[in-house]
Amino acid sequence: MQLDVESLRTFLAVLDHGGMTRAAEHLNVTQSAVSWKIKRLEERVGRPLLIRDGHDIRPSRDGRALLEDARSMVEIHDRAAARLASSELTGTVRLGANEEVGATHMAGVLGRFTRLHPSASMEFVISNSKSLEASLQSGSIDVAVLQVAEDDLQPNDVVLWSDDLHWVTCCETPFEAGTVPLITFGEHCFYRRLSEPILTAHGIEHAVAFSGASSMGVQAMVAAGLGVAVLSSRFMTGDVVEWRRGAALDPLPRIFQIARPVPGEQPAVAAALLRAIADELIEPEILAA
Fold first, then answer.
1. Phi/psi at 15 (5° precision)
2. pTM value surpassing 0.90
3. How far apart are CA 287 and CA 281, in angstroms?
4. Closest CA to 241 of 130, 132, 166
């Protein structure tokens, strides 16, 4: 019996992500490719490894027995492959990212880059998109992961994903009349530059009730019923719902999460980091476009 690493990787992805469809998105392959690899693995083992119960998938007894060894085999393979593929690239690369990306995503990027280029070093900062743009222009960082509107996209930008903006509030506080308490990311965030003129143009009185740099912080304030905010659809969960009055306002633009290199000639180490970001963060629908 020979177990191939990619079939084991697919087996783990199906269980870790809760199904064939999400596993396919995570692995950037088709759902039929995932099904085929699982079928091939089960044929080699000679026993079913997954139990399909309606929309749920769980490991069989043999699947549970395989799990720990499968993880070890995939990790050892990836570690060995990364060591053999590592470059002699040296130098320091400075990366900036906004809070929207999330620590888990950035940890994956930094880990991938470090494994591929062990002789290079990295400086990493988190800031808002406007500050990151300024840092790129001044050359104080080499690559930035930030959020822009469609009109602000540049030719060298690598689009990681896009999303719609929404007026949101707590399901228990619709703010259907009176002065609207506005929750913002602060005066330097373009969400505020979008939202306040729209409210003013429609004659809706408003006052800033809270400003914070964190998406999670703004989401928490909205969920607590403290006001209305503009957020991407990724943060519309639980008590955070569409603000009904927002449907009558001017449409909000689509936003793009991008990786942008420093203007001019890029250092080799910065170009390598940009590729690592693209490999780790570009979402499947962007690749399919």
1. -75, -40
2. no
3. 11
4. 166
Q: Which residue has the higher pLDDT, 56 or 228?
A: 228
The pLDDT tens digits for 81-138 are 776 665 567 788 999 998 877 666 788 788 878 877 888 888 998 888 888 999 999 9
> Could you tell me which residues are beta bridge partners of residue 51?
58
CB 29 within 8 A of CB 94: no
The pLDDT of residue 279: 83
* Strand blocks (E) in the chain: 50-53, 56-59, 91-97, 120-126, 143-149, 158-170, 180-184, 206-211, 229-232, 240-242, 254-261
DSSP lists the bridge partners of residue 125 as: 96
Spatial contact of 189 and 165, defined as CB atoms under 8 Å apart: no
Given a contact cutoff of 8 angstroms between Cβ atoms, the answer to whether 157 and 263 are in contact is: no
Angle subtended at Cα 229 by Cα 151 and Cα 160, rounded to the nearest 5 degrees: 40
- Residues 142 and 76: their CA atoms lie apart, in Å, by 32
Say how far apart CA 120 and CA 86 lie, in whole Å.
11
The tokens describing 54, both together, are 């309606």
Contact 269, 161 (CB under 8 A): no
Instruction: Read off the tokens for 204.
Output: 């809706």
